[in-house]
Amino acid sequence: ATPTALLVGTGRGAQLGILIKGPEVLESTRTIDTVVLDKTGTVTTGRMTLIDVVLPGGDAVTAAAAAGARAELLRLAGALEHASEHPIAQAIARGADDETGPLPSAESFQNVPGKGVSGIVEGHAVIVGRESLLSDWALAVPAKLAAAKASAEARGRTAVLAAWDGEVRGLFIVADQVKPTSAEAVAQLRALGLTPVLLTGDNAAAARAIADEVGIERVIAEVLPEDKVAVISELQSEGRVVAMVGDGVNDAAALAQADLGLAMGTGTDAAIEASDITLVRGDLRSAADAIRLSRATLGTIK
Ligand code: ADP
Ligand code: MG
């Protein structure tokens, strides 16, 4: 490999919004056969919106009582999520603030990575998160909420539960959007002979729906943040040479473990630092451009 050719390739990358950490990075793309894509913030925009609030209900509940229950649910869960930086949390806090006005502040707050949040709001012990977090507290999901959750997830949405003082009080449905260029990017990666894999901490049904929307067959879902790196190692032990594209703090270790790590420039510093390549535009098509560019660069060297 002549240093000049590598330098030219690196320079061309910069013009395309592909920042390559060093000339040796181009070499490492040569044998990549699998591209692992983080879902939230990479394939999707990661900007979530609260689209529905479901109460456990019961036939005896009057309209006034239901309105009161909804307001209290938004206030207590919104206050707790206000303390979290997670995109789901921000969607809930924003939705709650829009509907009920200024939120109280949480008296205590604890983040449970990959699961949700817990804390004290107005003297109540509040939990907001996925079903497994509620199970940790021995709370069972009422049938109506379980049904609403399943149908939301089948449509690619994320549904989280809220509980306080030992009772499940409601379900929040949040929606994220697939970036307009993601499906085309996946098609380009396939055309380069690469196998795309979707990796996420989100539930399997929502992940499947997003994967179908962009044309990905293999989905690895419900992976805790600390386990994403192990997923990469496993794929490598299957004999695959793995590129990973991600944006989050929880992707950093996996990006470093991958044979080639690509960070969304719109993502966190931790992801960018752990990666070999930064895709400045946050457009997944740049991942395909990067592979194409290195192949072209290496092609001129051989
Ligand atoms: P991803 O890999 O999609 O970014 P995370 O690992 O951050 O997902 O979170 C996995 C799941 O844990 C979420 O889909 C959600 O169900 C739950 N969760 C995490 N943080 C929160 C939070 N602050 N509020 C509610 N639910 C949360
Ligand atoms: Mg992400």
TrEMBL record:
- Indicate where this protein resides in the cell: Cell membrane
Q: What protein family does this chain belong to?
A: Belongs to the cation transport ATPase (P-type) (TC 3.A.3) family. Type IB subfamily.
Q: This protein is called what?
A: Heavy metal translocating P-type ATPase
Q: Which organism is it from?
A: Microbacterium psychrotolerans
